[in-house]
Each structure stands twice: as C-alpha cells, then as structure tokens.
Design brief:
The complex is a heterodimer of chains A (about 90) and B (about 575). Chain A is mainly α and about 90 residues long. Chain A has 3 helices and 2 strands, in the order H-H-E-E-H. In chain A, strand 1 (about 45) and strand 2 (about 50) form a beta hairpin. In chain A, helix 1 (about 5-35) runs antiparallel to helix 3 (about 50-80). The longest helix of chain A has about 35 residues, at about 5-35. With about 575 residues, chain B is an all-alpha fold. Chain B folds into 2 domains: about 5-300 and about 390-465, Up-down Bundle (Sodium/glucose cotransporter); about 300-385, no CATH class. Chain B is built from 24 helices and 2 strands. A two-stranded antiparallel ribbon of chain B has the order 1-2. Chain B is globular. The chains are: A mainly alpha (about 90), B mainly alpha (about 575). Chains A and B meet through helix 1, strand 2 and helix 3 of A and helix 5, helix 10, helix 11 and helix 13 of B.
Chain lengths: ~90, ~575
C-alpha cells in the first residue's frame, strides 16, 4: 500500500468517526435539548423534566464524553495507520 | 476582622501569586511569548483554557441570567460548551499540526495571500477588543463593589497586574497564571453553591440538588419553583418562551463562535503534540463544565431563595415581607443599587411579581398589588449568594478574588492574541519581514502594552454599546474566522479568491444585520422584535446565517476560479496526519 493511499484511508476513517461523534453532539443538544424538549419534559428524571435536564446538564456531560472518546479513538486510529507521533 | 480588610488580604494574596508566577516563567523567545514554547502539559493547558474562556460574564452574570430566563437560558449553557466539541474534532489537532503561532498566519499561508491574512487580522482585532473592553469593565466593577475603591482606581490596579504578567511573561506567563486563576475562581464559585445546595435540598452536589427535593417538604425543587413563579405571573421555569428556530440559531452561533474565537484557538498551539491538542480540549471542557453544570443550580436556587425571602408563606394568603424587616444582605445590596424597592401601593410590604403579563394584572389588582416593587440586578444572584446563605466572611472575600481572577485571566488572553496578531502577522509578515527574533519580541511586548492602555480606556469610557456588542464577537467569529479555517482544513478546492470573498460577505452581512437592529454608532433602523427578524432569528443568532453565506460564497467563487497551487494541496495533506508535528514549521 502506497503512503498516499494509506493516508487517504486514514482520512476517510477519521471523517467517519467524526460524523458519528457530531451526530451524537447534535442529537444531545439540538435534538433532545431543543427540538424534542417539549415532549421529553413529560418524562420525569428524579426532579428534572427530561428535556430541561438535557438542555442544562445532559448535553454538557455528553460533550465531555464525546471529546475524550474521540481523543482515545483517534490515538488508536493513528497507530493502526502508522501516522502517530513518536 | 472586618470584611473589607479580609477581602483586601485575600485579593492581595492572589495578586502576589500571579506576579510570582510571571517572574518565574517569563518569556525568553518569541516562541515562549506566543505559544509558551509549545511545552504546556495538556491538563495544565485545559485549566488555562478554562480560565481564559470563563470571563467576568460567566462568573458573575451567567447564573443570574439563567435564574431569570429559566429554560431559555440553556442557550448559553449548551452554546458555550458545545463549541469545544467542534474545537476538538474540527480545529485543534490540525492547527496544532500546522504548527505556527497565530490564526491569521494559518489563514494567510493556507490561502497563499497577504490580503487574506490582513482580513483575518482585522476580524481578530475587532473581535478581541470588543471582548476585552467588557473584561476591563468587569475588573473595575468587581474592585469597586468589593473593595469600595472607585472604578478608575480598580481599573488601574487591574491594568497594572495584567501589564506585568502579560507583557513580561507572554503566553508562558499567562498560561501558568491562568492555571492559578482557574483554581481561585472555581473554588470561589463552587463553595457557596455547595453550601446553598445543602441548605435547600440536603444534596452536597448542586448538580443533583437541582433535581432533588426541598428539605423538609416532599416536593421537588424545580416543581416548587415552577409553582411559585407561576403564582406570581411569570412563565414556567422549565419551559421556554423563545421560538424554536431562535433557540436553535443562538445556540449554534454561540457554539461556532466559541470555536472561532482566536484567544481560545491559540491555546491549542501551546501543547507539545497533536494528540495532546485533542485531549486538552477535553480537559478544558471538564474544567469549564464544573462551573457550567453548577451555574443552573445556583440560578434556580438563588431565585427560589429570593422569592422565599419576599414571600415567607404561600403566595397571596400569607403577607409579603415588610420592608422594615428586610434582612441585612438586602440592605447591603440596596446600597450598591443592584437591588431597589419602590412602595407603589404604599402598604410597606414588598411585592415582587410579573407586572408585564396582562393576564395576571386582574389577579394582582384583586390582591391590592399596584405594580412590581422590587428591581433585581441579575448579577446579584452570584455576588450576594454567600450572604443570602449566611456563609462566613472569608467566602465573600473569596468570591471577590474569583471575580477578579475570571476577568483578569480572560483579559490577558485576549491582549496576547492582539499583540501576536500585530507583531507577528502585521510587522513580521507584512511590514518588516527581516526583523530579528529579539526585535519581534520587543514589538510584541510593545503591542501588548498599547493594547492594555486602549482596553483600559474602553473599560473606563465604555462606548454606550459595550453590552450590546457582545453578540458581535460571537457572530463575527462564527461568520468570518470559523468557516475560513474549517474550509482550509477540510477542502482542497477552496482557494484564495473564495476564502477572501467568503470572509468578507459573512462579515459584512453579520455586521450589517446587528447594526440594523442594535444600532451601534447609529440609531437602529428597525425595532428589534421577532416580527422584523429575518426567518425569526435574533441578532444574537444571526452569525449562523452569516456562516452559511460565507460557506456558500466561498464555494461558488472557488468553483469559478482556479484551484490552489500544488504546494498548498501538499500543506493540506500534511496537516491531516499527526506525524511530524514538531517539524511542521519547515513549510
């Protein structure tokens, strides 16, 4: 495999991981926190209406997990394609 | 010991620490000055980014904003944290790999054009000065409220401190000072929040206290808050009044704007490796989230505490608080003008309710209420928290130190990107390319000093529009810098002509829309109401439309003109892989 095709495959794999992470990012904030907040507020999570919880707490926790997941996943991908830093 | 003496000691002590750090870590080269020699540990960089990011507004105003907006306040919580996901995924690793010092130098190199670089410098300076004026004002206000010196004295002390460690230490000095400032501000924010949460709900963590039951009653805090404020004619706390499209646009504009702010981006140039840049964004968000998940609890609890004070029993059945029996903290904050009472119906008692709700007016009249009598400044929700909760004096002193730390750390970060843009992107790249490293460092220090003076002036004589132009900083970052950087990384086809046309149209559109409704320099041309807005999007959220226009124009213009040259295509290939980050400047 030439270095060029390897780099292209690495980039494609990166874009795929990115797309998955950004979908989760979108769903947790814009989806559950805004678009579906109304219906979700009918569900109670302890003392929180669920939509309100996503908008003021849940989305932030999701963002955090996403970034650490992406950093971990990309470190693995870097090694798989042998483009990691020394 | 008297409160004021204690406050002086605590704030003075933190200043000694900041200055000590600046002397220990002073910059010796332009590399140290711009990007701390690229040797900052990702966790330390995360903390510094958090302090850099969280300004006087986050520390003092945000919880109060949420307290009065309820669910609508979520736009700030999601908007100012979600941007870090974009930073970690789309920007930070690639810009770190590229390996230069500033945002305009990336744009200038990627679009092989001094014009693009200069457009980026103009955007950067405009965004950063808008922001820094507010910070210097914040420094002055915190000093004058807690230390009872006048605003000018407070401002000069603040400028002096920032001058010392930003000019001497550069990015290296700022970074380690910000780590210390983060510790001060997060401690000052969470301690009162924890105490209040324990008092109200028995939960140690404010984050769970917000969803907990009120102590001694089997009712949830949020349910109780909803009931109480609806009884006073306000809308439900956990439900919004903004239109969905506007919520959407504001949240997205704040997220994208956050990811496009130069003083935030530049922090990711300081870590040793590409993998550290990804991780560091996570640490930054973790440290930010400590405050941002506490803030909604502080907001809701402070609102409930305030109403409980004024309405000791059930609304309308038990009498309201008599003005003569008001608590001590009420008197203290009346003196500052943040709280004011006017006895409109002459009964000597305080009525606090929503007198702008026409449906509620007959109910209020039947109770003998003649208009809302209490004006509450939203900033009080954080500033008065320790007193409302009867916390010891050292906590109050700590809150003062926290407010100063939040304002100073952000101001220093902004001043540094301004000085780097001037010395590196204007002087070194355009005006005098042969300048030595030592001379460039000197120019950088000089630029930082001048920037501090201008910022101080703007803080003392705030142009009437400072409060209104906060929307500017985020909107312009979202509509100009963010798309240019993203397209520079993810497209090989976008060329010089496309990028410049895109940045300019995005910038002019957003600028024009905000001026049209907010009227900076001129009278607003139209009333700032939802009926007049384009697609129902307020000026706060219009950066999103500006961003889309930027993307669209850049794409079309690039299609119609020739593709970027070969060596640019190679540069893009190169920044997409992590290996070789240390050598990236050789391009």
């Amino acid at each position: 495999m030439s270095e060029q095709t390897q780099r292209n495959q690495y980039w494609q794999a990166n874009l795929k991981i990115m797309a998955v992470c950004l979908s989760v990012w979108f769903i947790a904030s814009f989806g559950l926190g805004i678009l579906f907040a109304g219906p979700l507020n009918g569900i109670q999570l302890f003392g929180f209406p669920l939509g309100f919880w996503f908008a003021q707490q849940g989305s932030i926790y999701t963002f955090l997990i996403l970034i650490f997941y992406y950093a971990w996943r990309m470190n693995r991908l870097d090694r798989e394609f042998d483009v990691h830093e020394e | 010991m008297e409160l004021q003496t204690l406050t002086f000691i605590v704030v003075g002590f933190t200043f000694v620490i900041y200055i000590g750090i600046a002397v220990w870590s002073r910059a010796k080269s332009t590399g140290d000055f711009y990007v701390a020699g690229k040797g900052v540990h990702p966790v330390a960089n995360g903390m510094a980014t958090a302090a850099d990011w969280m300004s006087a507004a986050s520390f003092i105003s945000m919880a109060g904003l949420i307290a009065f907006l309820g669910y609508d306040g979520s736009v700030y919580l999601m908007g100012w944290t979600g941007g870090y996901v974009l930073l970690a995924l789309l920007l930070a690793p690639y810009l770190r790999k590229y390996g230069k010092f500033t945002v305009p130098s990336f744009i200038g190199d990627r679009y092989y054009s001094s014009a693009a670089r200069i457009v980026a410098v103009i955007c950067l300076i405009f965004i950063s000065f808008t922001y820094v004026a507010g910070q210097m004002r914040g420094v002055g206000i915190v000093f004058s409220r807690f230390l009872e010196v006048d605003i000018l004295t407070g401002l000069i002390i603040g400028m002096g401190i920032v001058f010392f460690y930003a000019v001497l230490g550069g990015m290296k000095g700022i970074t380690y000072t910000q780590v210390a400032q983060y510790c001060v501000l997060i401690f000052a924010y969470t301690v009162p929040a924890i105490f209040i949460s324990i008092q109200l709900t028995g939960h140690v963590l404010p984050q769970t206290g917000l969803g907990g039951q009120v102590t001694g009653e089997s009712v949830y805090l949020l349910d109780k808050l909803n009931t109480v404020i609806q009884d006073l004619g306000f809308g439900e706390y956990t439900d919004g009044s903004k239109s969905m499209i506007d919520m959407f646009a504001i949240t997205l504009a704040l997220m994208v704007g956050t990811a496009g702010l130069p003083h935030v981006i530049v922090r990711f140039f300081t870590v040793p490796k590409v993998s550290d840049a990804r991780k560091s964004a996570g640490w930054a968000l973790l440290f930010i989230a400590l405050l941002y998940t506490t803030a909604p609890a502080v907001g809701a609890m402070a609102r409930l505490n305030l109403i409980n004070t004024i309405q000791p029993g059930a609304v309308a059945t038990a009498p309201n608080l008599a003005y003569d029996e008001r608590p001590d903290w009420f008197r203290t904050w009346e003196d500052t003008g943040l709280l004011s009472f006017e006895d409109k119906n002459g009964d000597g008692r305080i009525q606090y309710y929503n007198d702008t709700n026409p449906e509620f007016t007959p109910i209020a009249e039947s109770r003998g209420w003649n208009g809302n009598e209490l004006d509450v400044d939203r900033d009080i929700m954080v500033l008065a928290n320790p007193e409302i909760a009867n916390l010891p004096d050292w906590v109050i002193a700590l809150v003062a130190a926290g407010g100063v730390a939040a304002a100073l750390s952000t101001a220093a970060g902004l001043l540094l990107v301004i000085s780097a843009a001037v010395s590196h992107d204007l002087v070194k790249s355009v005006i005098a390319p042969n300048i030595s490293d030592k001379a460039e460092l000197m120019v950088g220090r000089l630029a930082a000093a001048v920037a501090i003076l201008i910022a101080g002036y703007l803080g003392y004589n705030p142009p009437g529009f400072v409060a209104q132009v906060v929307a500017f900083a985020f909107g312009l970052a979202a509509a100009s810098l963010f798309p240019a950087i993203i397209m520079g990384i993810f497209s090989k086809r976008i060329n010089r002509e496309g990028a410049i046309a895109g940045m300019l149209t995005g910038l002019i559109f957003t600028f024009g829309y905000i001026i049209y409704f907010k009227g900076v320099f001129i009278q607003p041309l139209a009333e700032n109401t939802p009926e007049n807005w384009l697609f129902g999007i307020s000026p706060e959220g219009i950066g999103v439309v500006g961003m889309l226009i930027n993307f669209g124009v850049a794409f079309i213009v690039s299609r119609l003109t020739s593709a970027p040259p070969e060596h640019i295509q190679e540069l893009i290939e190169d920044i997409r892989v992590p290996r070789g980050a240390g050598h990236a400047h050789s391009h």
